[in-house]
């Protein structure tokens, strides 16, 4: 059975994007970028909602070809392009870069994928992750909390039907002031 992990950068007031889908405040330091890159290396499959997919696929397929790309960005872009991905959307009809599109029931498909053998799966996008949280499918939460208040936007956590009890498994502070916390779902 696979482990499902939901992790993203978020503001101190709990948003993954400020109003207008602005993520300019969340540009990671070199150390934080390396953390996310290492997580990508340890991930077998990434699940995306449409909005996050469109953000990622607009940059990373050619991120290694940019003249100012750092060695870490080059490595990340190549890994991202080559890894298996699933996009859940009913409004797009084509995906590329080792990606499969699912237009049907996201919770049913995530449940099926979790039951397979394989390594960890990451889930990205607040709406998709919210559906997985409400269904009790998320096994771990990774929060990289930036020292910024954005006042509104897209929340990391969506409304839940029930409490989710967690165990703290890691805390780390990055030199840029970002506080990383990892929690496992207590079952």
UniProtKB/TrEMBL annotation:
InterPro entries: DHFR-like_dom_sf, RibDG_C, Riboflavin_Biosynth_HTPR. Gene3D superfamilies: Dihydrofolate Reductase, subunit A (3.40.430.10). Transmembrane segments: none annotated. Residues 2-180 form the Bacterial bifunctional deaminase-reductase C-terminal domain. It holds the Pfam family RibD_C. PANTHER family: 2,5-DIAMINO-6-RIBOSYLAMINO-4(3H)-PYRIMIDINONE 5'-PHOSPHATE REDUCTASE, DIHYDROFOLATE REDUCTASE FAMILY PROTEIN (AFU_ORTHOLOGUE AFUA_8G06820). This is Dihydrofolate reductase family protein. The lineage of its organism: Bacteria, Bacillati, Actinomycetota, Actinomycetes, Kitasatosporales.
């Amino acid at each position: 059975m696979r482990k499902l992990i939901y992790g993203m950068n978020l503001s101190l007031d709990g948003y993954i994007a400020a109003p207008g889908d602005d993520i300019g405040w969340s540009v990671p330091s070199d150390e934080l970028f390396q953390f996310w890159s290492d997580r990508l290396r340890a991930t077998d499959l990434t699940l995306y909602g449409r909005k996050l997919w469109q953000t990622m696929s607009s940059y990373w397929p050619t991120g290694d070809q940019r003249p100012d790309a750092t060695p870490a960005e080059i490595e990340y872009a190549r890994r991202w392009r080559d890894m298996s991905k699933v996009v859940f959307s009913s409004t797009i009809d084509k995906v590329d870069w080792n990606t499969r599109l699912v237009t049907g029931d996201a919770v049913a498909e995530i449940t099926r994928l979790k039951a397979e053998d394989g390594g960890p799966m990451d889930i990205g996008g607040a709406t998709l992750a919210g559906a997985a949280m409400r269904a009790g499918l998320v096994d771990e939460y990774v929060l990289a909390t930036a020292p910024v208040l954005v006042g509104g936007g897209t929340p990391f956590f969506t409304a839940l039907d029930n409490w989710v009890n967690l165990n703290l498994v890691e805390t780390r502070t990055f030199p840029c002031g970002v506080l990383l916390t990892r929690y496992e779902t207590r079952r």
